[in-house]
Amino acid sequence: MDCGTCESASPIVVQKPEVVDVALTITENAQSMLEQAFGDDRNMALLVGVLSGGCSGYMYDLQIVEQTDIDCQELAISGFRILVPNSSSHLLNGIEIDYEDRLMGGGFKINNPNAQSSCGCGESFS
Amino acid sequence: MPRLAFDDANLLIFSGEDRLRFIDGLSSNKIDFNSTDVINTLVLTTKAKIMAQLHLFMLNDMLISITISGDHVKLVNYLNSKILTQQVAINDVTTLNYIDLVYGENTDTVGVTVSEGLTKVNVNGNYGFEIYSVKQNRLPTSTDQQSFINWRVENLIPWHGYEITSKVNPYQCGLNNQVHENKGCYTGQEVLTRMRSRNKGMKELYSIDNVAISDDKITTKGTTNSLAIKRI
């Protein structure tokens, strides 16, 4: 087999999605949960990302980080640092981050106006 | 073993540290490699229709896919749109390689072996692929399409463009063994899980004498017997 790495086979040209200036909102419930998660340390940031996979093709990925190597835009919302990767910005513009306090299926939820469909667990969208 | 030139497949190389997780999230089988495994998996739409079949194996650090799909450009665009922040790069090396299909009784171990420029990918003991550089002479074909079709009918092997199309899901064309029932979420999973739990819409492939079935029910017509699909 010829993998082409010694010669000319170049990667498939990836069509980079347009980078959008993201606007997002955080509900009061989500803010109070973030207060608990961050404590007084406001150097930490909430990274709101998207990964491939899930029942509908894309999955939300929430992480608390201090910094990241990912090319992100940084937002300041109600005193919280929010990081959104530029490569996912077209999928996340306009989202609302909510928190549902339920025994089953509770936790952070993303309400996404860009999603055409979502899976039952709410973690995946397309 | 009989050999056919197989020009319907594409050869993709996935590199980058997230390559396994990336494919695992987008396909129906569990991507969990031992070194010489071949993993057969399906890329599905959100409605669980088949977009492509991937025969995956590892060579050094590269994840390689013998990819069969009705629309390769659409598939590659789909995969590219899912990379986002993940460390994944996709190379298409189809034009650098010949891909031959070999089938029939195969005493080789299922998996991948490489010798003298020939990469043998034994998919399941029934059939496999041999990949070699286009700088070598193409190996001669030793069978014809009708013989291959008769062999498929005899062994109940579904094939692309016949049983496997973009209009069916894996449970409707005999690819149940390429759906992992216990892995996490992947695209199309909800539909398949619902079908399985409700036992609704499941179909199976069967072989039948040509005189006992009308042509419009046949998916693959062999010389004396044919393949068809029926509801379970």
Please specify the SSE layout and strand pairing:
The complex is a heterodimer of chains A (126) and B (232).
Chain A: E1 25-26, H1 28-38, E2 45-52, E3 58-65, E4 72-77, E5 80-85, H2 89-92, E6 96-100, E7 107-111, E8 124-125
Parallel strand pairs in A: 1-6, 2-5
Antiparallel strand pairs in A: 2-3, 3-8, 4-5, 6-7
Chain B: E1 3-5, E2 10-15, H1 19-26, E3 39-44, E4 50-59, E5 62-69, H2 72-81, E6 89-92, E7 97-103, E8 111-115, E9 118-122, E10 127-133, H3 145-155, H4 189-198, E11 203-209, E12 218-221, E13 225-231
Antiparallel strand pairs in B: 1-7, 2-5, 2-6, 3-4, 4-5, 7-10, 8-9, 9-10, 11-13, 12-13
Question: Could you walk me through the main structural features you see in this protein, from its secondary elements to its overall organization?
Answer:
- The complex is a heterodimer of chains A (126) and B (232).
- Chain A is mainly β and 126 residues long.
- Chain A has 2 helices and 8 strands; from the N terminus they run βαββββαβββ.
- The longest helix of chain A has 11 residues, at 28-38.
- Chain B has a domain at 145-231.
- Chain B is built from 4 helices and 13 strands.
Could you provide a short overview of the structure?
The complex is a heterodimer of chains A (126) and B (232). Chain A is built from two helices and eight strands, in the order E-H-E-E-E-E-H-E-E-E. With 126 residues, chain A is mainly beta.
Task: Supply database-style keywords.
heterodimer, A: mainly beta, 3-stranded mixed sheet, 2 helices, 8 strands, 33% strand, B: 232 residues, alpha+beta, 13 strands
